[in-house]
Amino acid sequence: MLTGMAALRWLTPRRHSATARSVLAGEASAEAARKSAQSAEFTELAEGTAPDTGSEAEFPVHGDDRAAAFFDLDNTVMQGAAIFHFGRGLYKRKFFETRDLARFAWQQAYFRLAGLEDPEHMQDARDSALSIVKGHRVSELRSIGEEIYDEYMAERIWPGTRALAQAHLDAGQKVWLVTAAPVEIAQVIARRLGLTGALGTVAESVGGVYTGKLVGEPLHGPAKAEAVRALATAESLDLSRCAAYSDSHNDIPMLSLVGHPYAINPDSKLRKHARELEWRLRDYRTGRKAAKVGIPAAAGVGAVAGGTAAAIALHRRRR
């Protein structure tokens, strides 16, 4: 159900503008993240992931309760895209049929090869994704998300980025994932990693059942920045004392919000931007071989389909 500020914005005509949709998506994601963090019990990170901060030993600052860290998920915390891995899991569980593969694969190829986000094609992709989970219960997708994490995601976490997140936790700060992936899946990953919670794309549900609609838009680009801003306001955070981590130039709006931006496994545009602004940069990819991580090489047709078809609430073109 929609509540509070997100519900009011959903009912207003302003939702039709791109800016309003970004604000709505951000506020809805922040609200969902705070509710999840307040109600759930999070596990601790496993031993053996001590932070390697090197010359940056004084950061993060211990005891600074007005600071927090925001981590992009795909190719920053985890190798590849969560939506692909989730798609493989849903395909395996027959959430969509083989006859849908051609359409979904074509949509994914269009976004990755055309080099632009055409609104009409993106809407088609979102509608396809939402139709898959329409009528399913939120609790069902959360339960499946737990299984899919164990099957496809757990072994793909970057140890270096996980150590950075742990450094913030050890300093007494909250750590949030910020991702275009469905918020329910993002919350599963955050809990498994011992993080505070997650900001993700919010799909509308009524009575615990997905309606097939989004709240706002996918949490991508400017919408991520709006989500971080909304959460910072709700949590009384000082963004100039916060940190953000991402691999993608699409997240420059989010990175630019905080006083401590990090480029992690950056794409070429973000690498250039980070160097120009003297942002911190870390690359955990062996031999830079993962410069264009997206569809895992061994994932096969299930991953291609999953990239678009498995989204609870979104399509995201990383590059």
Task: Provide a concise account of the structure shown.
By secondary structure, the protein is an alpha/beta fold. It has twelve helices and eight strands. The chain has helices spanning 4-10, 18-39, 82-92, 101-114, 119-133, 138-153, 159-170, 183-192, 222-235, 252-257, 268-277, 300-309; strands at residues 68-72, 174-182, 197-201, 203-206, 209-214, 243-246, 260-264, 280-282.
Question: SSE layout and pairings?
Answer:
Blueprint (H helix, E strand, L loop, with lengths): L3 H7 L7 H22 L28 E5 L9 H11 L8 H14 L4 H15 L4 H16 L5 H12 L3 E9 H10 L4 E5 L1 E4 L2 E6 L7 H14 L7 E4 L5 H6 L2 E5 L3 H10 L2 E3 L17 H10 L10
Parallel strand pairs: 1-2, 1-6, 2-3, 6-7, 7-8
Antiparallel strand pairs: 4-5
Helix pairs in contact: 1-2, 2-9, 3-6, 3-12, 4-5, 4-12, 6-8
Keywords: Hydrolase, Membrane, Transmembrane, Transmembrane helix
Family: Belongs to the HAD-like hydrolase superfamily. SerB family.
GO molecular function, one term: hydrolase activity
Report what the structure shows.
- The protein has 319 residues and is α/β, with parallel strands linked by helices.
- Helix content is 46%, strand content 13%.
- It contains twelve helices and eight strands.
- It has helices at residues 4-10, 18-39, 82-92, 101-114, 119-133, 138-153, 159-170, 183-192, 222-235, 252-257, 268-277, 300-309; strands spanning 68-72, 174-182, 197-201, 203-206, 209-214, 243-246, 260-264, 280-282.
- The chain has a six-stranded parallel sheet, with helices on both faces. Strands 4-5 form a two-stranded antiparallel sheet.
- Helix 1 runs antiparallel to helix 2, helix 3 (82-92) crosses helix 6 (138-153) and helix 4 packs across helix 12 (300-309).
- The longest helix is centred in the first third of the chain and has 22 residues, at 18-39.
- The protein is globular and about 50 Å long.
